Amino acid sequence: MQRQATSSTSDSEPRYTNIDEKKRKRMISNRESAKRSRARKQKLMEDYVKEADQLKSENNQLKENINRRSQYYVQVESDNNVLKAQAMELTDRLRSLNSVLRQFDDFSGYALDIPEIPDPLLKPWQLPYPGQPIMASADMLQ
Fold this sequence. Notes:
Blueprint: H1 2-11, H2 14-108
InterPro entries: bZIP (IPR004827), bZIP_plant_GBF1 (IPR045314), bZIP_sf (IPR046347)
GO cellular component, one term: nucleus
Region (Disordered): 1-42
């Protein structure tokens, strides 16, 4: 019991109360700091979630854009193949007609001027009919 009495007297001494007050203030300060730290972490987490949602949305828009352009590319490629086949067929017809005209020229004696068959597949950068304008629309560029 005597120890208890000495400890209670030591608690009431001014030098120990000052230490307890410092400890209590430090604990309060630490709690407030921890609370601020948790609030910062929460705000950061919310910002990251918002940014992730925004990036997912942007990613989905880019995927849709890629899909649309891929479909357009496939369509243009298909149309191009059809046009190439038609050009080949027309070239063959023209050769056949020129052959008939040569035979007609040989048998009739009439001189016909037969133009050379342009082959746009061999020289795609040269237009077979340079006087004819090339038409383009805004839809082609999208």
